[in-house]
Amino acid sequence: MKATAGLEPLTGHYLNLDIGGVAHRVYFEIAGEGTPLICLHTAGSDGRQYRALLNDTSITDRYQIIVPDMPWHGKSSPPEGWQERTYQLTTDEYLAYVLAFMDALAITQPVVMGCSIGGRVVLHLALRHADKIRAVIGLQSGLHAGRDQNNPGDLDYLHRHDIHGGEASAAAVAGLIAPQVSDQNRYETLWHYASGGPGVFKGDLFYYFHDGDLRNEDLNIDQSQCAIYLLSGEYDYSAPPDGAKEIAERIGCSFTEMKGVGHFPMSESPDAFKTYLMPVLDEIGLR
After folding, report:
1. What does each C-alpha distance from 140 to 27, 76, 109, 162 come to in angstroms?
2. How confident is the model at residue 148, as a pLDDT?
């Protein structure tokens, strides 16, 4: 195919993936060369959040950026028989998906960066599989999220017949975006939520608020195998910077608070985010 003006330097692929004996068709985008950098999106959204990174040659000249849509999200389909079950993400399922994706593409010793639920699962990944990962970058990480652990039903408004689930999901996260963000980036970020599948955001939040809680875990992570870097936006009340700072103090890892940034640094404020991300990528490159 001849080069076309406006054509972005990334490619998309579908991957037929077995996750715990269940067949999935997973979509991902890839750009660049070098150290693999797997990017995990937030709850209820998809890989479009990383559009700026995929197009940034100052990063893709050194890192091969790989951005999957989780099963049930974006252009990844739910498994056969989805209509007979309720989607509810657990820690074990999340880790099984990440590891199966790595294995299927023969990705070894990647850097894994995740935001929100992705920022939590990278900690689970470092705890259980430090030998498989070169480093993790947690965006908006926290040991837990402030929710009543005994009342998962308080999220029912996100999946009801009489409420537009997409609009409710977008409204639920709108306040997590920094006030100085451009309208273009703000509303594109919210569109990703508005276009999510029915019940998917709610199912992700089961992991975020309940099953993925790390408060009772011994965070004994071997950072000689897997380095940990935490970056948190100052305007995020869902995963406030103090939560990531607490983790950093407990395990002795790098933490930086990002000024002028909210819960979605890579999509709401890609330029500001880059000023914080590049020093981390430079340091990882020296490992």
Report:
1. 24, 24, 23, 32
2. 47
Q: Which single residue is written with the structure tokens 């919210």?
A: 190
**Nearest CA-CA partner of 52 in 268, 285, 230, 278:** 268
Q: Which residues contact 11 (CB under 8 A, 6 or more apart)?
A: 29, 30, 31
Show the tokens assigned to 278: 């590049």
Are the C-beta atoms of 95 and 210 separated by less than 8 Å? no
Write down the residue that tokens 């000023």 correspond to: 275
State how far the Cα of 46 lies from the Cα of 32, in Å rounded to an integer: 20
Q: Are 20 and 46 in contact (CB under 8 A)?
A: no
The reported pTM is 0.94
Q: Are strands 63-68 and 11-19 parallel, antiparallel or unpaired?
A: unpaired
Cα 43 to the center of its chain, rounded Å: 7
Please, are residues 82 and 6 in contact by the beta-carbon 8 Å criterion? no
Tens digit of each residue's pLDDT (9 = 90 or more) over 60-104: 999 999 999 999 999 999 999 999 999 999 999 999 999 999 999
User: Which two three-digit tokens encode residue 211?
Assistant: 């099953």
244 has pLDDT over 90: yes
**φ, ψ for residue 83 (rounded to 5)?**
-70, -15
